[in-house]
Amino acid sequence: MSDAVEDAAGPKPLQTLCVELLCEYLDELFEQAEEIIPELPPSVKASLIAVARRQGSLDDDRLEALADEEHRVMVLHACPKITDNVAEMLAERCRRLHTLDVSEGSKHSHKAMRIVVQEIFPRLKKLESVPAVWE
User: Is the pTM of this model over 0.85?
Assistant: First the structure.
């Protein structure tokens, strides 16, 4: 966004500036995850999940650190570093989850899919998956 357009729209909200700064230092943030991440609001954690996913750095540890009970939508589209281990954690922690996208590039076993179907699916309104990736 150019400075002229940004000036016409006014300054960015403080939360946006803070999230942009956290995203810029994502690796450093995860080095101190236990101290910082629990204090972040769910919306910021969701933004960090999206950024880590787009950067290709979202893995089990990062997802576990950022998953929040308030999350209603989880997009794990094209996340090859996410393993079966997170299925049970998502089922237990993200009780309000109603949309889950595990399509394209994510590989999960029948066990993980069973957890998703038995534990999460009853409350899902939308499940995105490409059948070929489920082994």
Answer: no
